[in-house]
Amino acid sequence: xxxxxxxxxxxxxxxxxxxxxxxxxxxxxxxxxxxxxxxxxxxxxxxxxxxxxxxxxxxxxxxxxxxxxxxxxxxxxxxxxxxxxxxxxxxxxxxxxxxxxxxxxxxxxxxxxxxxxxxxxxxxxxxxxxxxxxxxxxxxxxxxxxxxxxxxxxxxxxxxxxxxxxxxxxxxxxxxxxxxxxxxxxxxxxxxxxxxxxxxxxxxxxxxxxxxxxxxxxxxxxxxxxxxxxxxxxxxxxxxxxxxxxxxxxxxxxxxxxxxxxxxxxxxxxxxxxxx
Amino acid sequence: xxxxxxxxxxxxxxxxxxxxxxxxxxxxxxxxxxxxxxxxxxxxxxxxxxxxxxxxxxxxxxxxxxxxxxxxxxxxxxxxxxxxxxxxxxxxxxxxxxxxxxxxxxxxxxxxxxxxxxxxxxxxxxxxxxxxxxxxxxxxxxxxxxxxxxxxxxxxxxxxxxxxxxxxxxxxxxxxxxxxxxxxxxxxxxxxxxxxxxxxxxxxxxxxxxxxxxxxxxxxxxxxxxxxxxxxxxxxxxxxxxxxxxxxxxxxxxxxxxxxxxxxxxxxxxxxxxxx
Lengths: 276, 276
Known about the structure:
Helices cover about 25% and strands about 30% of the residues of chain A. By secondary structure, chain A is an alpha/beta fold. Chains A and B meet through β2, α7 and α8 of A and β2, α7 and α8 of B.
């Protein structure tokens, strides 16, 4: 028998299909359709509303690159806010840093956290960390209510439609600026350099209206349609390209040379965003 | 009506599907199944034996990176051999260089060239260039029969199974070394850094048995399952990372900074191939 998962990504011009060995969990949460299945190559796969969010095999590429670039660009990140990220992968990476004293994870859908703790043990290791506080609220409102609180805000969201849409607005970028300390950094996933260039261009331009230092870096993913994944990073004072600290945390992919290499060459950036 | 092309790539753990607006050409050549269809996002798409070979939208990424890195690492490439590449994309890029005096294109399946000339006008521009000689023979045998003839050999093959398998052997690498002039360069596509690491590792190690300078660079493609595409490059004397000439050819993606950026960071290379 061939059981297949056909991804239904409305923003991708290619549809991906995965073989399914076993369905471990399939439920309708208050917010979305949640499915976890096993695939012979990728291991366990989490999907939300029909779109793959992570696989055990390649999630480290996404989570390490989302967390460690900003964490190493900041000399002493103590207070970190993660918006989204209910699977725990970003939290696991942030928690590797001893200098981090407090981690707030704001996840609208608590059932994602519960499913991850039950079915994704390699991702959900951080939830029991005493530095962690979990809040089941909407991310952009939480950011808007915070003032000079965080060294680092990490937007680990689903695609910028539905609940996640409010995280990618000029209003939210301004609120994030206010919620960050005077040398804080904001970083977020910002979709595929192949498929979503207009979105990335707009996000970069909107961030530049608010932050003095804005940049774009990428990682090639094995999953996620469009694969050439971007992260938009915006900083109040520290240059995101420079490492302010040595790399001492254990990683599979992130490294000092990977940090430098991840930023897109100027010729690509200028073509995409326009010269400033 | 939804007409879909389901890719049948035996080496990919994800299967890709493309919407088909119109089938322009579907024929059984002497060697393979050849299909050209149109897709609303990618434009015209060429498939061989059920696997996507190129799309009009993203083929420049592959063809520019396959051709121009080696062409710019060599100070004066005059005689170039292209093995495969019947669609004409690599030929189009090579032909942009005025210093190239002779281009031999060795393609086993002449019907691919014919189909490209009829249905892929943006790719097949080079076939009428007076410097071009087309040979309908098997690539590895042709390489084996040549001695100190070429400045550059470009392997633009299908996946290393069936006809293309013989191009990725230690025997063929040795023959290529002999077929190159004393400062010649060999470059070839070498599959996905996500899905085919054992293949890449073996190719890199085999090349190092023959060539003094061996390296690995990548480009993120929108199509090709595994997307993070690698090129293995082997050189007799010129360092592939250095540009021996200015970039004067018109390109959409390749540029001086892209050339340098394309080579994989040492931490990734050492993890993949092992330190030498």
